[in-house]
Amino acid sequence: xxxxxxxxxxxxxxxxxKREIKRTRKRIARIEVEVTLAVAVEVIKQMRSAVAExxxxxxxxxxxxxxxxxxxxxxxxxxxxxxxxxxxxxLEAVQDRE
Length: 98
Prior knowledge:
The chain has two helices and no strands. By secondary structure, the chain is mostly helical. It is elongated.
């Protein structure tokens, strides 16, 4: 029997298996990451939905949101009035030059 030749064949086979094991581990790890991310996204969606549902039952939160909408609307109205006043002032300044 040719022991050196047999030993070399075993080493080559072992190296091939080592590469295949490494590739398989990488593939499995990638799949685990993909599935983990998909589950995390789903959990976050469910959590947001549950939080939104729960917040809808908290009167103070609902009142606060309503108040915020009203305040933002009032601010938008004031912004529009301010812009209009600036236009009026500019128009008056142009008319005064003529």
